[in-house]
Amino acid sequence: MVVRAFVLATGSSGNAVLVEAAGVRVLVDAGVGPRQAEERLAALGERLLPRGVDAIVATHEHGDHFGHAEKLARALEAPLYLHPGIAAPRVRRKCHVREFVPGASFRVGGLEVSTAVVPHDAPQVAIRIASDDHALGIATDIGHVTHELVDLLGACDAAIVEANHCSELLAFGPYPPRVQARIAGHLGHLSNAQCAELASRLVGSRIGKLWLGHLSRTNNTPERALTTVRAAARRIAVEVLPHGESAALEIRRVRAYQLALGF
Ligand SMILES: [Zn+2]
Ligand SMILES: [Zn+2]
Q1: Counting ligands in written order, which one lies closest to the CA of residue 164?
Q2: What residues sit around ligand 2, an ion, with C-beta below 5 angstroms?
Q3: How far apart are CA 78 and CA 228, in angstroms?
Q4: What CATH class does 3-251 carry?
């Protein structure tokens, strides 16, 4: 069953990706409100309501991912999947919350949602959503690349990954030193070079396509991100997600599973 993804927003002003397959819809992150989500989906020829979604899965509690969780969960009457690292007492009181364990998998209808713990300055997970035969990874807000992340994404056909900043633009840009240190730090965001490292570690895995997201408007350009990551992503196609625009993605099997045939 083909997996489709509708990127409603990506970046520090909001993150939300609607994933649809096998008749099931999962919204990953709630960084836009119900009206904006409906408008952005309509721009892609789809509707959010009346059908709604079967689950909203939150990666972490930063506002650009979680700021509209309560509104969305209530407007869509959808269960909100949270891990214990997301405190959000008010949201937990007001919404229908289901708990998941970071690093473990759970099912939403016919889809399997797997998670891997990711280093960031709030408890954070990367997500893999799989139908019977296709899988999409979503991994942003990553301080540095880990084995767990490479393993999770290497089992996907395609992934949205973070290429947040160019280290030079960040260092010589307008942000105060404290903020620069946070972004570039071990628990901050992936630079283009770190995203390239991730891509190089995925060469030879199942993955055939990377979409670069969560780009900083101030400290990166789509061209810099593309050039840096493409140079490392041998035999993996790389594209940049447009900032501030919605995008419809189709996840196809590019790479057949490696078959250990004896000839
Ligand atoms: Zn973020
Ligand atoms: Zn974050």
Answers
A1: 1
A2: 62, 141
A3: 39
A4: alpha beta
Q: Is 90 exceeded by the pLDDT of residue 243?
A: no
C-alpha to C-alpha distance for 28 and 31, rounded to whole angstroms? 9
Backbone angles phi, psi at 134, to 5 degrees: -135, 150
Which one of the ligands is nearest to 124 CA?
2
- pTM higher than the cut 0.90: yes
Collapsing DSSP to helix, strand or coil, 186 comes out as: coil
Distance 172 CA to ligand 2 centre (A): 22
Q: How far is the CA of 140 from the centre of ligand 1 (A)?
A: 7
- Edge-to-edge strand list for the sheet holding 105-108: 105-108, 111-118, 124-130, 135-139, 158-162, 209-213, 237-240
Q: Please report the DSSP string for 28-69 in residue order.
A: E---S-HHHHHHHHHTTT---TTT--SEEE-S---HHHHTTH
In tens, the pLDDT along 209-234 reads 999 999 999 999 999 999 999 999 99
Spans of all domains in the chain = 3-251
- Mention every residue, 6+ apart, whose C-beta is less than 8 A from residue 53: 18, 25, 26, 27, 76, 78
**How far is the centre of ligand 2, averaged over its atoms, from the C-alpha of 20 (Å)?**
24
Q: State how far the Cα of 11 lies from the Cα of 214, in Å rounded to an integer.
A: 4
pLDDT, one tens digit per residue, over 177-209 is 999 999 999 999 999 999 999 999 999 999 999
Q: Do residues 126 and 157 make contact, with C-beta atoms less than 8 angstroms apart?
A: no
Q: Which residues contact 240 (CB under 8 A, 6 or more apart)?
A: 163, 211, 212, 213, 215, 222, 225, 226
Distance from residue 262's CA to the centre of ligand 1 (Å): 46
